[in-house]
Amino acid sequence: MNFDFSEDQKYLAGEARKFLSAQSPTSEVRKVLNDDAVAYHQDLWKKVGEMGWLGAAIPEEHGGLGLGMLEMCVLAEEMGRAIAPVPFASTAYFLTEAVKLGGSETQKAAILPRIAAGEIIGAYAASEGPGHPDTANLRTTFDGKTLTGLKIPVTDGDIATHAVVLAKEGKSAALVLVDLSGPGVTRKSVQTIDPTRSHAEIQFDGAPAERLGAKGEGEALNAQLMDRVAVLIAFEQLGGASVCLDMANEYAKTRYAFGRPIGGNQAIKHKLADMYVKNEVARSNAYYGAWALSTDAAELPEAAAAARVASSEAFWFASKENIQTHGGMGFTWEIDCHLYYRRAKLLAVQAGSPKVWKEKLVRALEAKNAA
């Protein structure tokens, strides 16, 4: 079985890399990092919309390109390589996939064309503070028409126009769609380890909302959404981890100490080798996840969890070892290592922490073995 991308998909990856290298070098990322008044790179976001990437996985009848999830995986990896300071994941992964999965035809017709046109910025609001949100501990409530509660932190919540919110409805959960420009919504920005991706606290006080899917389906719908998003985030993490390895390898070859490249030292060789191995393990699992996602395979929960766990570990390890390989310079503000370390720590907790996904992987394997 061939899990590799097609020539067309590889061409898309190459063109995306050229575009992002030109439009989103780390100097542009730093502009967002260094300016507290800037939440995201608006010019880059506009150009991403013009490239059609926001509608890559949206059907043509709803204004998208009608490509597929494999193309989204390709784009996700390139966005991860560029650590792009734009709300791409919140919009093209979370909001788009939620509407595609649970939206009615009316909701799809109202939202998807506007996403593809770049008119909407999305957000996914599940967290209510420490701990993993689930039906048992949700405090935000939905009464069928309005939403009440507090969500924190919400990635891109301060700039989003619409949000998908996980809330309690009776004894079950619901995924609901909220227009954040409507009444009953109060937002304020919150600080995280990676200011290049803004976050917010959102208070809902009787905010008008629409359910996605039927009543009582929210928990299952949210699980499906998380599996799909997990694969895409895994590719983002894989892209970032790949750059960290490249940075460390290049520095090891060009940095001289005592008359020889530091890459000649066994300790540095071991670091680079360990980074490479973890990246390759992550890539194998990410490709498995891409196959399961693109074919709607029954193995998707297992594949998504494996991809998420492996990619989280690879990106964190590569970003950490990249700093160590750079030595004293690696800890400075001027060197780009910390940009990737920040993003690695942030992506590790989006859509659930590695601990949550490890538990999901164990449960998926137990169910598979019991069948």
The proportion of residues in beta strands is 15-25%
Question: Termini distance?
Answer: 24 Å
* CATH fold description of the largest domain: Butyryl-CoA Dehydrogenase, subunit A, domain 3
List low-confidence stretches: none
Integer count of domains: 3
The CATH superfamily of the largest domain turns out to be: Butyryl-CoA Dehydrogenase, subunit A, domain 3
Which architecture name of the largest domain does CATH use?
A: Up-down Bundle
Overall CATH class of the largest domain = Mainly Alpha
Structural class based on helices, strands and sheet pairing: alpha+beta
Q: Quick check: average pLDDT?
A: 95
> Largest beta sheet, briefly?
7 strands, mixed
Number of alpha- plus pi-helical segments? 11
Radius of gyration: 20 Å
Give the SSE order as H and E letters: HHHHHHEEEEEEEHEEHHHH
Number of strands: 9
Give a written overview of the molecule.
The two termini are 24 Å apart. The relative contact order is 0.11. The chain is α+β, with helices and mostly antiparallel strands. The strands form two sheets. Strands 1, 2, 3, 4, 5, 6 and 7 form a seven-stranded mixed beta sheet that branches. A two-stranded antiparallel sheet has the order 8-9. The radius of gyration is 20 Å and the shape is globular. The chain has eleven helices and nine strands. Helix 1 (7-23) packs parallel to helix 4 (69-81), helix 5 (88-102) runs antiparallel to helix 7 and helix 7 runs parallel beside helix 9. It has three domains: 7-116, Butyryl-Coa Dehydrogenase, subunit A, domain 1, CATH 1.10.540; 122-215, Butyryl-CoA Dehydrogenase, subunit A, domain 2; 219-370, Butyryl-CoA Dehydrogenase, subunit A, domain 3 (Up-down Bundle), CATH 1.20.140.
